[in-house]
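Predict structure. Chain length: 138.
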Amino acid sequence: MATIEVEVEINATVDKVWDIVSDIDNEPKFWKGTKKVKNISKEGNTVNREIIIAFRDQKCLQEVKIFPKERIEAKFIKGVLNGKKTMILTSKEEKTILRALWDIKLTGVMGMFTGMIRKHIKSGTEQAMQSIKSEIER
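Prediction complete.
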């Protein structure tokens, strides 16, 4: 498994950061590795969806659990990726710490390339976090 952690401090309240981060349908705007999102079902705080990722335009199924103003857990349940991406919000005075935690690997024979894509995912995550920060702070 590849573990990736990226953190950014945003000059805004948790409420304001949550408004952007919790709009999971808008994910491709910030996450260039996510090309398309299609919701399949929603029950309570859980959304099942299909996403198209930039890595060879692969289709993945995700189960996304939303814990309001705290975290969002996106579990990859089918496709080339296996594992989870978690977005965590922590209040720090009038600022918010936004953390992205990945624990993933490529499935099947692609598993041998997990280390190679780790750098790519980390770079994409850093870019996404800066885009989110810029959007909120402007």
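Summary: The chain has a mean pLDDT of 94.
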